[in-house]
Inverse folding.
């Protein structure tokens, strides 16, 4: 029994260590949250071409409201991220949660707020 | 002396005429081929390509057209001029023969399409901001009338689904106000507007049947469509296809469907179901739903080949690499094609032997034979979206 217990303890300790190690290596990546450069390019393409089908290619608005830095001024990033992830019921704004991660949406929102996209 | 003056003058005239003549055919052949031409919108770069549907080639480019997201095009009766409606309120008249801009006006902050009157004299533009419709002279693009879409307590509604109708009328839907308006422009300076209220939640687009009789608006906010008989306005707006989803949960809609033209074949009409992987089949005598055809994704365009024997369907993001072909007689999908990433639009040639498909993310326009369903040609284009052939000049509702 006591041997079993010590094995169990050892195993528990090992699991904890693995978890800690994983946490150590993974946390900074997720905390920074920034999609890699390849994904960033895809997200910018999505922003312009697909978000653009309702918000306009230059994000000056269409069926959906404008998404320019001026239009978003004063709106908390967390609220905006939530709108993208969960959509706005009763409007055509769909929830993007099935297609985008929270980190990707946060990155898109920062991109929009800071106007870091090309509008030609 | 006198003779000496006259001859150089005549020579000059002859030379000018010769140069003008050369100009007329310089770009890509003769004026009599206008019926074979069309334009492809390169929306991100504010340009259209002029294409030849017989040679399957690009023949010219016309740039400087502004923000062309969701751009659409109507034609003058002679097929020579195309009117391009941009997102940024730009209305541009282009000359396909000379491959150049004739005139361009920025008539609002944000717009969504337009129509040309049957007599070819009036061009109407529907605007999101400021919400309403503006009417222009097709000849000069001079503003003739302004119809603000005011409702409720003086608010302005976005306007969608603008079409031309018999009797010099334009019909359109007010997205926010949930109304359909019929504007009579017999006297262009004094539009007479008849309004139909409570047509249904969030009309998002509309079409007119090829016989010019029925105006049908699709509803985003509920399962159903709003039908108006333009020969019997007193009958009012009738709701059709109520509850077509039968309580099924709607999927998130990543791209709004479009109602363009009318996919009609015999007694059947085909329309996209909103938020569902289905094409609805309607009995067009009684406007009753006959059934639905399961398809690959949420339909965006549902277009009938001009002879009405096939219906071609493309799909919303993220399932937009595919096109399906439906056999009208059996109402079954007979072929699934995967032209490439982000298929945005399809356009048939006059009699439907070819269909041109824009593949946005692959920067191509593909041409398919609609009988063999094989690809015939492929043309490079920068993020192509809408394709509009000059044959539209002679078709009601396009």
């Amino acid at each position: 029994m006591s041997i079993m217990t010590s094995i169990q303890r050892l195993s528990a300790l090992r699991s904890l260590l693995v978890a800690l190690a994983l946490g150590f290596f993974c946390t900074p990546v997720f905390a920074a949250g920034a999609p890699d450069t390849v994904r960033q390019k895809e997200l910018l393409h999505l922003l312009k071409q697909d978000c653009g089908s309702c918000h306009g290619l230059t994000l000056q608005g269409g069926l959906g409201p404008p998404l320019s830095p001026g239009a978003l001024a004063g709106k908390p990033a967390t609220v905006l991220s939530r709108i993208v992830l969960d959509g706005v019921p009763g409007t055509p704004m769909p929830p993007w949660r099935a297609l985008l991660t929270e980190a990707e949406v946060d990155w898109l929102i920062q991109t929009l707020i800071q106007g870091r996209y090309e509008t030609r | 002396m006198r003779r000496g003056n006259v001859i150089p003058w005549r020579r000059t005239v002859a030379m000018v005429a010769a140069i003008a003549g050369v100009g007329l055919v310089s770009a890509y052949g003769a004026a009599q081929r206008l019926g074979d031409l069309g334009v492809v919108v390169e929306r991100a770069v504010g340009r259209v390509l002029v294409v030849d549907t017989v040679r399957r080639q690009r023949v010219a480019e016309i740039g400087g057209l502004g923000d062309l997201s969701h751009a659409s095009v109507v034609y003058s009766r002679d097929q020579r001029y195309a009117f391009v409606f941009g997102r940024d309120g730009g209305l541009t008249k282009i000359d396909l023969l000379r491959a150049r801009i004739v005139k361009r006006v920025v008539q609002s902050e944000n717009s969504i399409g337009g129509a040309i009157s049957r007599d070819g004299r009036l061009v109407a533009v529907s605007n999101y901001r400021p919400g309403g419709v503006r009417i222009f002279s097709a000849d000069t693009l001079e503003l003739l009338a302004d119809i603000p879409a005011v409702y409720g307590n003086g608010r302005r509604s976005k306007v969608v689904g603008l079409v031309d109708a018999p009797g010099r009328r334009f019909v359109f839907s007010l997205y926010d106000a949930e109304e359909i308006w019929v504007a009579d422009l017999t006297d262009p300076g004094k539009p007479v507007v008849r309004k139909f209220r409570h047509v249904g939640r969030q009309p998002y687009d509309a079409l007119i049947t090829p016989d010019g009789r029925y105006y049908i608006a699709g509803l985003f906010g509920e399962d159903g469509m709003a039908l108006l008989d333009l020969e019997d306005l007193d009958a009012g707006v009738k709701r059709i296809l109520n509850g077509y989803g039968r309580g099924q949960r709607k999927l998130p809609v990543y791209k709004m469907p479009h109602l363009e033209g009318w996919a009609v074949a015999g007694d059947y009409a085909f329309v996209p179901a909103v938020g569902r992987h289905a094409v609805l089949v309607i009995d067009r005598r009684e406007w009753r739903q006959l059934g639905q055809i399961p398809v690959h994704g949420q339909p965006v365009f549902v277009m009938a080949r001009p002879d009405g024997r096939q219906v071609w369907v493309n799909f919303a993001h993220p399932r937009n690499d595919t096109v399906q072909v439906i056999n009208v007689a059996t109402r079954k999908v007979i072929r699934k094609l995967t032209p490439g990433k982000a298929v945005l639009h399809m356009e048939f040639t006059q009699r439907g032997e070819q269909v041109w498909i824009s593949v946005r993310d692959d920067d191509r326009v593909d041409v398919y034979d609609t009988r063999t369903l094989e690809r015939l040609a492929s043309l490079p284009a920068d993020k192509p979206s809408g394709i509009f052939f000059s044959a539209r000049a002679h078709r009601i509702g396009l």
Notes: The first helix of chain B runs from residue 2 to 26. Residues 1-7, 17-24 of chain B have pLDDT under 50 and may be disordered. The first strand of chain B starts at residue 37 and ends at 42. The radius of gyration of chain B is 22 Å.
